[in-house]
Write a structure and sequence with these properties.
Low-confidence stretches: 192-198
Shape: globular
Largest sheet: 11 strands, antiparallel
Number of strands: 13
Distance between the termini: 35 Å
Structural class: alpha+beta
Strand content: 35-45%
Mean pLDDT: 91
Number of domains: 1
Radius of gyration: 16 Å
Order of helices and strands: EEHEEEEEEEHEEEE
């Protein structure tokens, strides 16, 4: 019997710490897109595959004092935690000096609903990721690879999910239709995460 039903929204909170002092978060949401639904064990297996792909791109451009934490997986629709999955590495791979705190790569995911989009900031990058005060080619490539893990219908271990953006105002889930990787550095904002208090 499925624990996670067709069209339920699965949430993945990908967490890391900059120099073990500053928390960095990205919240990703995708809906169950198979009518039979999935067990909790299946979702955790799939999200392990997905997190390995996402972090496997960002760790190539992040400082080696960015420490990854286990990603928290929840059924957002049912308001319950499913479990955690580990990242493929414990730290970023770059040893060169980091960019100033708050400077980040930016991916914006758009939906067909005007005004509803999601921004994902990737902080903890290093100075060799920057050229003429803009993201260098490697950074753009890795951010684009990350974005492709959240574009279109996803197949994870033969099961299917569809990435999207949750509207708290409308209580609706809008599918991601396209993305843009910024060619400029972004300034990562500090804000509280709904339901997490951080």
């Amino acid at each position: 019997m499925a624990d996670n039903n067709y069209l339920d929204v699965i949430e993945v909170l990908v967490r890391s710490r900059f120099k073990n002092q500053i928390d960095m978060f990205n919240v990703w949401r995708m809906r169950v897109d198979d009518t039979s639904g999935f067990t909790n064990a299946q979702v955790l297996t799939d999200m392990q595959t997905w997190v390995t792909g996402i972090v496997g791109q960002q760790d190539d451009i992040q400082w080696n004092q960015v420490y990854y934490q286990a990603a928290l997986v929840s059924n957002f629709t049912q308001n319950r935690i499913i479990g955690t999955v580990n990242t493929p590495r414990t730290t970023g791979l770059k040893s060169t000096q980091p960019l100033p705190t708050g400077i980040a790569g930016l991916i914006t995911f758009f939906t067909a609903q005007p005004g509803y989009r999601a921004r994902k900031y990737v902080g903890g990058l290093t100075i060799d990721n920057s050229l003429n005060r803009r993201p260098a080619a490697e950074a753009i490539t890795k951010l684009t690879n990350m974005a492709n893990y959240f574009a279109g219908r996803l197949t994870l271990n033969t099961r299917h999910y569809y990435p999207g953006v949750w509207s708290f105002k409308n209580g609706a889930f809008y599918l991601v239709t396209r993305y843009v990787v910024s060619s400029e550095w972004a300034h990562q904002r500090r804000r509280r995460l709904p339901l997490y208090g951080v």
